[in-house]
Specification:
The complex is a heterodimer of chains A (582) and B (374). Chain A is built from 25 helices and no strands. Chain A is an all-alpha fold. Chain B folds into 2 domains: 223 residues, P-loop containing nucleotide triphosphate hydrolases (Rossmann fold, 3-Layer(aba) Sandwich); 131 residues, Nucleic acid-binding proteins (OB fold (Dihydrolipoamide Acetyltransferase, E2P)), CATH 2.40.50. The chains are: A mainly alpha (582), B alpha+beta (374). At the A-B interface, helix 1, helix 21 and helix 22 of A face helix 1, strand 7 and helix 2 of B.
Amino acid sequence: MRLVQRTATLTSSARFSGWGTRLTATAVALLLIYLVVVPLVLLGISSVRPTGFPLEPGFTLGNFSKVFLAGDFGALLWTTVVFALGSTVLAMVLGTGLAWLVERTDLPGRGVFRVLVILPMATPPVLLAIGWAMLLSPRTGFFNLLLRDGLGLGTAPFNVYSVPGMIFVEALALVPTAFLFLSPAFRNMDPSLEEAALASGASNWRLIRKVLLPLLWPALAACAVFLLIVCFVVFDIPGTLGMPARIYVLSTRIFYLTADSPTGVPLYGQVSALGTFFLLILAVLGYAYFRFTRESQRYRTISGKGFRLRQSPLGAWRWPAFGAVTLYFLLAVVAPLAILTWASFMPYQTRPNLASLSLATLDNHLDFLRNARLMTASLNSLTVAIVSATAVALLSLVVSWLVVRQRPRGATLIDNLAFTPIAIPGVMLGVAVVYVYLSLDQMFPVYGTIWILVIAYVTHYLSFGSRLANGVMVQIHPELEEAARASGAGGFRVLARITAPLVWPAVAAIWIWVLAHAMRELSTALMLSSRNNTVLPTLLWDYWTGGEPTRAATVGVWLVFALACILALWHVLSTRSASRDA
Amino acid sequence: MLEVIQLRKRYDRNDAQAFAVREVSFSVQSGEFFTLLGPSGCGKTTTLRSIAGLEMPDEGEIRIAGETVFSSAGGVAVPVNRRDIAMVFQSYAIWPHMTVGENVSFPLEALGVPSAEAARRVARALEMVGLAAFRDRPAPMLSGGQQQRVALARAFVKEARVLLLDEPLSNLDAKLREQMRVELRDLQRRVGTTTIYVTHDQEEAMSLSDRVAVMNDGRVVEVAAPRALYLRPRTRFAAQFVGQADLLDCTVVEMRDESCVVDTPLGRLRASASTPAGMGATASGEGATQASGAGAASLLIRPEHIELHANAQSAPNEVRGVIERVLFSGRIVEYVVKAGDQRVRVQGTSRAMFETGQSVVMELPPEHCVVVSA
């Protein structure tokens, strides 16, 4: 009956809501349709236009035939699948191992590792890729040279500009995501289930096969599908490591057809045809993800009552396991950032040793602080990030207020529209937004300015912001607002004195998260970049692909520094709000 | 002071029969402590929230101190913040980002009370609930009982004509609940505010209220003072909802002025028929049917009103039986007595004890045998 009463409340508040709410809901719905649906529709239309421009006349299936019947389409698809599957499998193996070691064994320093795991997430993937290119490039890679000279080999043993190289770096970047997905599953598993199996005389192997795997299966499957989606859409690492060796995956091919096409003109028609195909794969993967997460709800192993975790003693393997986990952090964070820092102090790429230390110079960093182009890029980055973060935070607040509190007609539509962009790859969102503003150039002359970046980022990050805001809004008991109204406060006073202060920590968290991600976002920025809207990541990319690795490294070091400051700020804010909740 | 007339509220706009509240009417006198009592989902909270203005009823009228605050016919719906009410919520709804003092002064701030007077009134309200020393403490650093008191102070400080309380004690542990019950009653008596109280706990309703309205399935089943409600309920639902009760099917064979004769599975018994003097007025609620007419009805006898004797006493309404089960719990002793095919629960004290299998005589005092509508 409690449920019934809740419904009664909802319908009544909907009736109370009146014109203000309905007007807001309509405005938000129209804005979301404009931001999310219009670009995707234009993308679809453009794929059947001979010129590739959605508003120009004509109909053709030529773009599809050019893309799908091209001789290398099979190879492209094959590379994409191998890269995505390979990265997923490797990240899953490493992530599962890390989660098990940290959550369920007596690994030394488990608590520290649990905190450190966000470090690789804070490193922009493009920097990780550049760092590894400096370590494992066949000609100048530091590790390669060490191994070649140390072992007296004729040639370098590794080539990072290859599919295995891409898989290796991508997996390093994705391990924390897998860890965050799986560690709750390990942590919440009721040990009495394992003890019951052991008490029934099961061997360790039987225990893993018959009890642990079936229990973990939904979490593992959901995690794997999520990683697969990420690997299908990711641009940074295949872009940095694959494109120089002419190894293409779907996202880099889209970029290639736009930016470096053989004719010199962006082949928008083919890009759209490829994009439409891309969306189809993502729809299938998205559906699978939805199914698996629903399943894992059903299998929930949280029992509510407190229990002590069964921790497997590692015995003699304790320190080797510690070494392996440490090695991961060295490979995923320390080594690439160290080589980048080294390079940023060098006049040209050198082999790190004492001899070249004498070449050390501050020129790159002084140049960074003096160079007008760099200053403009920093300023652009900051402006884009701050404006996007503010817009996303405010819009998320309004969306979740409508979706969770007011529930006017169309609330579900608004909720879904706000969430959809999570499944649109950055490269494709970039292309789609280009179509909109090339078509609307007369009305909104934003093409080629930083504002087109803001529009794309707001669309993309709203999916995250509205999720977080919904979660917080649900937790704020409606009686807190009702008590204010019953105390005699009008609508505006309730919002200003009660609702806004209560949701403020969530708004701050959304703001900083978007700020950090907008600062490092590369793929969308590349698709939308022009001379006047260079941001730090695109500049870094230009330097790197233009053969100026030390300048790229300098930009990277400053970018990491800025991100670290932002993340530290987030940490302070979130711990403060957490301590207040407790 | 408060009038609720023919209130109706659907909880599903698309289902004409899905009523949360149907045809609820009652009126509350100035200074009265009036309780809406019923199981969860009976519509008591919806009724209270409609009075507050947090819910929009579909039909009916609500008047507070003579002012119509809601009327479906007149198209009137005064918003919550302009009704002369104060409310205490089940979750207390203490704002966590404010201090105790800020919480309590918020209603005065919203009403635009000058700050000097507001400070005085806040101090007085906090004193009243015994939290004068806690004014500057952040609200989250309070225990459950203290939060409850802050919620009360915040409601009292507004000095509204009607105070609405939505299960305010249900989140407290048993001991604290009992203590707060006494405090709440004293406070209300002292301040004299007209109070509407919602609860599903019959003991709470009995010990606090001047009058209780028993609700079920969106209707007011019965309205009466606590004693009348317990001793002379008119409906089967009210009889069973307030206290333990064995109900026997019965047929009225003879009606007199103050008593009647009924046939029951225990044989022919004498029962009381109408409200005796000194029990307070009993107003029949909407939907309550008159029980005293002839025909199918139930006979209510509460277990603590039956007296057990070893031998016949030549008193009226004596029934022979055998003790079938004894449950000794110290202060009270509960028996199940079998008389013919009928089992009857009897509550005794440790003063006189009976053993399983013992033959006994049950004395059912006629003034405690009450005929209720089936």
